[in-house]
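During the no-cost extension, the postdoctoral fellow (Dr. R.K.) reprocessed legacy sequence entries with the updated structure-token encoder. One reprocessed record is reproduced below for audit purposes.
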Amino acid sequence: MLRYFYTYLLPFFIFISSIITSAADRPFDINTSSKIIAFGDVHGAYDELVSLLKETGVIDNNLNWSGGNSHLVSMGDLLDRGPRSRDVIELVMRLQAQAEKSGGAVHVLLGNHELMALTGNRDYVTQDDYMAFAGDETAKEREELRLEYLKAHEGQDDKNYNEEFDKLYPVGFTALDRAFGPEGAIGKWLLDQLLILKINDTLFVHGGIPFELMDKSLLEINTEGKKDINRYIDTVERLRKASVLPVYVGFYDRVSYLNARAKKIIDADPDIKLNSEKRPVWFDDVLELFEAQNAWFLSSDGPLWYRGTSLCNINIESFITERFLKRVKASRVVVGHTPTANGKVVERMDGLVIRLDTGMLKSYYKGQPSALIIDNGGIHIHYAGDHDIQPPVKENYSLSMKLSGMNDMELEEFLATGEVVEKKYIGTGVTRPMKVTLKKGEKSINAVFKTIDTNPFTRKDYNDSDRYLYDVAAYRLDRMLDLQMVPAAVIRKIDGKEGVLQYWVENSINERDREEKGIAFDGFCKKNEQYWMRYIFDTLIYNEDRNLTNILWTKNDFMMVFIDHTRAFRLSTNRPKQYRKAPLNVSDLLINKLNGLNKENLKHELSPYLHQWQIDAILKRRDLIIKEAKRTDTKS
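Re-encoded structure tokens follow.
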């Protein structure tokens, strides 16, 4: 038994302990009464960062730590795109060491650009960044790389590969690659930093909180993420040391390069494919590299790249965010990665999320440096050069503004009063919809006009009526809940006939056409997660007529938009048949909105379009949704 322990169990426990210790060496769950200052996405904007840190009192005029016991948090993306990435990184490295000696701390989160630097993706490295390392590059190592590159392209064509080499691999390339490597000073330092951090009740992560993180702990995220990063780096290093993967082969070309090299060997000796003993050792590392490169933590769905927390529908994303925050006992999450549109720090999901990337690199993002400060006075924002502190700006997303450049009131007014300049029937269905072009001054928009109305007379009729009024009711109810998924609609007469006029969603595609045309779903917001809102909204309005033609996706970002509700608002108090088993994932944020519906406000908004029976049915289905919903507490 003792021999078994020393042979098998002890090495296992040592291995597990080493993983946990390496992740826990740098604290990731901290309680403190000290001031917290956080900044995001510097991207080589050295001067802007220095000014910001001076103004917030964490460095002095000699660029040394003066923050005492404060906690300074870098949200990631210190480098790339800007001219002075090396200066930024070396400043933060020095401040981290100084802060520790002063009783403070500098916490550095890895962003997607740190990940790219560590894994050898140089897509956003500037000429200035390469030049910053030129003095560390020897003529010998540069010439060796040049000769290796020229040899690989020998006899291919008449291209001047000397010029090509200098263009693709500027002076300083080898030194930069070495510095960010696992044995380089910067690479080692970056690999010692965190992926996610919690200070008091505030969580910090570069990209966001994707669905896959929802039930993980902070320890799991930091250890599993580092494991995936190290797996990729270690595999590249083994292949380089085996002299089969040259330094000049870029991140996206590595697997194909190695596959081509392996194919040549197999073509020369087909027995290698069947005889593993003859196979070069590095063959196995090609598969390992492919798998490591496609690891979830390194992908666009991982927390360093994910944009859904910043950009996707708050009623969907809040379910994921709330659930994770409750699990780790936090009140909010601060993210970077996705620049805000107005250069202001933005609060969304009623304060669950704070977006801190305000585009510090002005020359590229046209934003401004900012810092989030948490102290006894609460949460406030400091903008560089501004002596007044401000609260975060509350997000005010408007579907109408996104689609038309007008707010709801402006768009409704345009639909109601715009001059009809063109009309065209767009199908032969029962509703006989017509596409209408409206004009006001120099501006014109398109809308769809429907007049279908099987006016119900008895209670039974309300369960199979088809009415244009219901399109307006769906729009009004959508806005009452702030779902922002139904285009603006008004009642209007055209050619003496009354009907609904609803904004035509330009540059969109319905789900049926997307599938038939084989168009890839290419958006930050996941299709299956957007469907959660479909199940909830269609249950609330009892819409049995949802199909692939009335689910629209905006082509630029694949955000879901709902149209065609003329057969909704039945009197049933159950779920529509197609949603009987669908998940109803409902956040506290959405629960509060649903609970805000009552007879009085529904009657005020919807009575011109719905009977009181239908309004009563909405409330009963609302109660059903709340009763059957999967909530964000970690027990469900």
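The radius of gyration is 29 Å. The mean pLDDT is 93. The remaining legacy entries will be reprocessed before the final report is submitted.
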